Amino acid sequence: MLAVKIVLTVLGALIILYLLLIMPRMFGRPDRKPHLGVLYAHRGLFDNKGDAPENSMKAFERAVHAGYGIELDVQTTKDGIPVVFHDFTLKRMARYPDGECPADAQRAEDGSYIIPGRICDYTWEELSRFHLLDTGERIPRFDEFLRLVRGQVPLIVELKIELKDLTVCRKAQELLDDYDGVYCIESFNPLGLWWYRRKRPEVMRGQLADSFRKSEGWHAPLYYILEFLLMNILAKPDFIAYNHKYRRNLSRVLCTKLYGALPVAWTIRSEQDLAENSRYFDIMIFDSFVPDHTGISLQTQNTVG
Description:
Blueprint: H1 2-21, E1 40-42, H2 57-66, E2 69-76, E3 82-84, E4 94-95, E5 106-107, E6 113-114, H3 124-127, E7 131-132, H4 142-149, E8 155-159, H5 167-176, E9 183-187, H6 190-199, E10 205-209, H7 212-215, H8 221-227, H9 232-235, E11 239-243, H10 250-258, E12 262-268, H11 271-277, E13 283-286
Parallel strand pairs: 1-2, 1-13, 2-8, 8-9, 9-10, 10-11, 11-12, 12-13
Antiparallel strand pairs: 2-3, 4-7, 5-6
């Protein structure tokens, strides 16, 4: 009997600890209403096979014109300039302009030439010369993007943070402090949310997460911690942005149903997915199609990740 009591006591303690670890912000939450009632175009209303590639000014213009909210990615250059770009590396999306390609450059499948290295390896002046895929679009600065949108649609700003370098939080927020529009921030890295918890608690913040084991095949302990939102005790997010394919994740369900965190879905890629997930999520981030009700004609998008 004593052994049973000990087991039950330990089990109860572990459950309480788990519930404390995943608990989002419970008090002083920002008003979520301005962020609701709109679909969010993932990296803009983009078309990687056309003239409006992802995270380009043209893709953002299309989203604003259509009345969609915008989800975008921000990271910093070598000289600390916030730019809008998803991947840490340039290989997938950036190309040399005509006449500037080194002789030893690697050739892409489409015949263009791949740019090596990472965003943080280049200054803004260097990055500004590169093209996005086979288009005339360039990598936008974050301040250029904000001037384009001018508060016309709400924004979800994903901060791209590797390890412990939180420079992008400070640099991006310096621009957002002067922005007159609705926005929130999100990141896969809980340390970014922790920065906002300390420095800008009035800003709505969200924890991005995924079933990293199933979607990426990653099994390191850190990915289990992130998948099950065990760093919420540090980040205290206001919303949970989760891969909709794994919406049944226990921690996600408890955060949204028990604790009342705002449920956000990424990335919806069909009308069927949009309909099926509408009962589980209050905010939807979409790409690869244009929802029927907009009446907009746009070539099917080509997306990765």
